[in-house]
Amino acid sequence: QEQLVESGGGSVQAGGSLRLSCAASGHTYSSACMGWFRQVPGEEREGVGYIYTSRSGSSDTYYVDSVKGRFTISQDSAKRTVHLQMSSLKPEDTAMYYCAARIPRGGNYCGPSSLRRPTDSDYWGQGTQVTVSS
Question: How far apart are CA 30 and CA 79, in angstroms?
Answer without folding.
Answer: 8
